[in-house]
Amino acid sequence: MLSTLICVFTLDRIGRRWTLYWGSVVQVIAMAAAGGLTAAGQSNPEGFAMAKAYSSGAVAMSFLFTTSFGATWLTIPSLYPAEIFPLEVRAEGNAWGVVGWSVGNGWLTLLCPVMFKAIKEKTYYVFAAANVITIPMIWALYPESNQRTLEEMNLVFTADSIRNWEAERNFKILKEQNPELVQAAQRGHSALDPETGLPIRSSTARNMSLDVHGMSVVEDKQTFKHG
After folding, report:
1. Residues of 106-139 as b/e, b for ≥16 C-beta within 10 angstroms?
2. Cα radius of gyration (the chain)
3. Which of the residues 37, 122, 172, 192 has the least number of beta carbons within 10 Å of its own beta carbon?
4. What is the pTM of this model?
């Protein structure tokens, strides 16, 4: 519980993505080390004293995992959905996020005893591998929301691709070619489509097309309205 306080001092300094990155890296190290130390303690031929030392090291690695998890992957999933969902679906999005988080944790709680009984300390290696997988997931799919308004995040998600680098490139082009659009979003204003009345996030996919070769944005008429 105390480890969650770490985010109070680091989250807005290094951002959401880097918080998840360092959490994943520390958790990989902790789980791999816990598995190795547990195996060494069980097969140690040098007597009880060394086996106890190995076991103590494995317990320390488990505490390290719990600490890093509390400071990173426990806190970000509660915050990130509220920063990326548009206003019209934010309540539903956060609710489903809690559902997914709860289902995942529930199944893990039920599955852990079965895994430890079947594969013993190799369970730690499975957890380490799972954390390795999260690193490219963050890089490819998680846009940075730190120091961005909700309206700016709407513009980030106007890209046709789910890949983060393409979304950031599209946002950069919008910022360069339509500075008034991004400035309004930075001030917390909503851009509305004059014909449909929908937020620009919804209409941009229809009214703006990104020319990958010419790197240009074709834009229909837009108006701005204070949010």
Report:
1. eeeeeeeeeeeeeeebebbbebbeebeebeeebe
2. 23
3. 172
4. 0.77
